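Hi C.,

You asked whether I'd gotten around to modeling the 251-residue construct. I have! Everything is below, sequence then structure, no commentary in between.
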Amino acid sequence: MKIFSILFKAEFKRFWSPVMIVSGFGLVGFGLIPSTVLVRSGNATNLSTLIQTVDQFLSFFTFLIFSAGIVGSDIKNGWVRTLLVRAVTRQQYVVTKMLMVFTAICLVYIFCTGISLTVLLFNPKVIILFDLSTSALFVLLKSAQIFLLITISTMVSCFILGAFNSLFVYCWMSMDMLLDFLVTRKYWDVKWMIIVKEYIFPSGFDNAQKAVLSDILFPYSELLWGCAALLLFFAAALFAMNKTVIDVGSE
């Protein structure tokens, strides 16, 4: 556990470069947008609805900025090589890296939600209903989905370096949204499109979140499918890291 703690601190310090700090503050600024939207509605708002609104503003840009090139950039600048020659294993590095990016994204979400909640609490036009159980379950499922996306980005980053990794992640997320729209609105009865969507763009956690917010039965099947996808892509990310060619001399 000590090696993970040391690695995490080192990765966390390296991650927050001046550019990433500016990007982080820019994303936190989006925390005012959901509150503005909800203030204009003038209605009672659930805490879970507020969190979902913040997520809709943040999810695409936060994931794209924070996780694109998660491993590829470190391979390119020689950081991975430096770690490996110091008896750090590939698995220790990649797991720590994913946890660090996950923590950074969660911090942005927490700050944005806190800003929006503070603004709404001091606005007499809006009433906040604290549905704590629903909100907690939604946050748990959203956290699992974020980590799933990080594992996918990590796997891709082992093979595609530099700006092309960011481009691939952007195209992958765009295709996910496009295919979800097509399957939901038009081609819901086309089996091969449904299979492609579920296996290449796993949506178990996302569907589970929608079920939780809709107050229907607990989404056991969606949760299990999301967990299966998470384990699969986590294993794939570790496998990709093991197969990545890194010149470490006497490794």
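If it helps when you're writing up: The chain has a mean pLDDT of 81.

Thanks,
B.
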